[in-house]
Design brief:
The chain is mostly helical. It has 6 helices and 2 strands.
Length: 156
């Protein structure tokens, strides 16, 4: 549930309110509809400020909550090739208890990239999602070392 909490908290910081229509694929990120004047990114944490790709390529707003710029760009750039339903299940696995632990973990403030950890299973299944995002791997290895687990140094 910690990723779901992070999802809600980061979207709130962005000024995005999830609503009942979110199951529709036709929901578009506000970054695609707001004018540059409406996006006051000076008030946003650096990690959540929209990228050029976020503003230019229409996408579902749930992809805006990750505090990793390159990860967001990778997901948005994949467009129709992304199975966002499967990605969502793999991130928030509590919706499908039959899946192996294949997710993200959030250990602190959701807008702080250092709070995030990626599981090895997720990394094996979705390596292209975090390609070019060394900060997530650094954070993951920090949390793994803290538990006494081996660090992850491959897949990127």
């Amino acid at each position: 549930l910690n990723v779901y909490r992070a999802f809600i908290q980061n979207l709130s910081i962005l000024g995005i309110t999830p609503h009942r229509d979110w199951k529709s694929r036709n929901v578009t990120s506000p970054f695609n509809t707001w004018t540059p004047e409406q996006i006051n990114d000076k008030k946003l944490p650096v990690s959540l400020r929209p990228t050029q790709i976020q503003c230019e390529i229409p996408h579902h707003p749930w992809l805006d909550f990750f505090p990793f710029r390159r990860m967001r760009d990778n997901l948005i750039s994949a467009r129709d090739e992304l199975d966002d339903g499967q990605l969502c299940v793999d991130i928030m696995g509590f919706w499908d208890i039959s899946t192996k632990s294949c997710s993200l973990l959030v250990w602190g403030e959701p807008s702080d990239p250092k709070s995030w950890e990626i599981t090895e299973e997720f990394l094996k299944k979705w390596p292209w999602v975090i390609r070019g995002e060394p900060e997530l791997l650094e954070s993951t290895n920090y949390w793994r070392r803290k538990r006494g687990d081996e660090i992850i140094f491959r897949y990127l």
